[in-house]
Every structure is written in C-alpha cells, then in structure tokens.
Design brief:
This protein has about 250 residues and is α/β, with parallel strands linked by helices. The chain has nine helices and five strands. The chain binds iron/sulfur cluster (SF4) (3 copies). The site of one iron/sulfur cluster has 14 residues, from helix 1 and helix 4.
Length: about 250
C-alpha cells in the first residue's frame, strides 16, 4: 500500500502547535503504518519536498520567504490544513496595528534595524486553505479529530457552539458576574473552556463562533467598565491586519 505523504511546516510562530502535534506521539507512531512524513523541520531532517497528500502549516505568513514557502507548499499539496490561530487568524502578530509596526520594530531592535516582515495576515489571505485546526495552541483532541477525519476523506466540521457551553458544562462561575471580561460567548468551542476553567478570561483564540453577536459583546464590555478597551479585547485574535477575515471552508 502506498503511504499518504504528509508534510508539516512552520512559518513565523512559536512552534507551540507543533509541540502539541508531537504530544500525539503514540498515535502518530500508530499512523506510521499508513502515513509517511518526509518533511517536518521540528522533528527530523527533511528528505523530499513533495508532492504531499496533506500539508499541515503552522504560523503566520509575515515575511516574503514565508509567503513564498506557503505558495510552494500549496502547489505541491492536495490538501492544505492551517494549524493554530497564527495560520487560521493571523494570530498575535496580526493584533498589532500595522501603522505602528515600524515604530515598534525600531523601539525594540533600534533605528538601524531593517525588517523583512510584511503585514501579518491569515494563511488563507495568501493561499487556498482546505481545513483549519483552531486554537492557540491547538487542542489535542480537536487536532486528532480533524486529522483523522481528513485521513478518512471526511470533511471535518468545526464545533458550532460557543466556549460558554463547555464552560457551563464544567460548572464554572461566569467571569461576567464578577465584572471581568470574557470572549466565551462569541468564540467557537472545542478547547474545553480551558481558560475560564482555570480562572482566566477567554481571549478568543479558537476564532469567532458562527453567528457571533459582536454588538452584544461590545455593549457588555462597556457595561462592565471596559469602554476604551473593547477593540483591543475583541480584536486580540479577530483583528487580522488589512481587515482580512479568514474564510473557513469547513463551515
Ligand atoms: S497558534 Fe499559538 S501556540 Fe500555535 S504557533 Fe501560533 S502562537 Fe504558537
Ligand atoms: S466565564 Fe466566559 S466562557 Fe464561561 S460562561 Fe462566562 S462568558 Fe462564557
Ligand atoms: S478559552 Fe478562549 S482563549 Fe482559552 S483556549 Fe479556549 S478559545 Fe482559546
């Protein structure tokens, strides 16, 4: 039997999502009967660059080299999967106001620093993406579900409920009752509400849930005293620079 060729790639990122994939190690070893991974910079010396049946791409394309690599991977791959919030939404780099990026770079690296970065946008702003694994980092069970669906030639359907549902299932007291902000109502579930379950607010890393009511969230943030911070809070993961909203083809 010919094994499926899977490539795992990273652009600009923290590699946290790839580490999550590595955490699937026992399951990955079982998959070795049907899957070959000729290229995975984090885990092995590369052998061949395609063609790939499936390419998993982590990270934000935010340099000319990143974009060139993403296009090359797309050309060589039947299915491209954006892995994690960096690839899905543009991630933390996309939360920066592009007009201020040069100023921040000079402040951090000095006046003479010549940056090669471009505006941070989701992967889908540069190439066609077939499927997405959401989150920062990705949830292991969600990653396994999506990968298995793709291997079985099924269309992985993302959760259609908000983080709040998973939060209430865990009987957490709602942060809004303490006048603390939380993006759970407008954020897609699938992460087991890990942040509010540990007393932390949801920042929306899974991306917006279908039919998210941003207007109501804005009003509630103002009501509890975050009037001047609504854009920053709500845009932490959903304000890709250039106004690009990722097209999730699985929805
Ligand atoms: S989505 Fe989060 S964990 Fe994954 S690579 Fe980006 S910053 Fe790291
Ligand atoms: S804490 Fe956040 S996720 Fe939990 S119920 Fe309240 S708003 Fe929803
Ligand atoms: S609770 Fe919110 S910020 Fe935390 S992992 Fe889930 S979606 Fe991401």
């Amino acid at each position: 039997m010919n094994k499926l060729q899977v490539g795992i790639f990273d652009l600009t990122d923290c590699e946290g999502c790839e580490l999550q994939i590595l955490n699937l190690k026992d399951k990955l070893l079982k998959l070795a009967e049907i899957v070959d991974i000729p290229i995975w910079r984090l885990a092995k010396t590369p052998t061949d660059f395609g063609p790939f049946d499936i390419a998993l791409i982590e990270g934000t394309p935010m340099s000319k080299d990143d974009i060139k690599l993403a296009k090359k991977i797309r050309e060589k791959s039947k299915i491209v999967v954006a892995v994690g919030a960096c690839a899905h939404l543009g991630g933390i780099p996309a939360a920066v106001d592009e007009k201020k990026r040069d100023k921040f770079l000079k402040e951090v690296y000095g006046e003479n620093y010549k940056s090669t970065s471009v505006a941070a946008k989701p992967l889908s702003a540069h190439i066609h993406v077939n499927h997405f694994i959401h989150g920062c980092p990705i949830d292991l069970d969600e990653a396994e579900r999506v990968i298995v669906d793709i291997l079985m030639d099924k269309n992985p359907i993302p959760p259609s409920h908000p983080v709040c549902l998973e939060c209430k299932e865990r009987e957490n007291p709602c942060l809004f009752l303490k006048n603390e902000p939380c993006q759970g109502p407008i954020t897609e579930g699938g992460c087991k509400a890990v942040c509010p379950s540990n007393g932390l607010r949801c920042w929306g890393c899974q991306g917006p849930v279908k039919n998210a009511n941003f207007g109501a969230m804005g009003k509630n943030l103002k009501r509890i005293g975050y009037k001047d911070q609504t854009e920053n809070i709500m845009g932490a993961f959903t304000k890709p620079s250039g106004g690009v909203i990722p097209t999730d083809t699985t929805k």
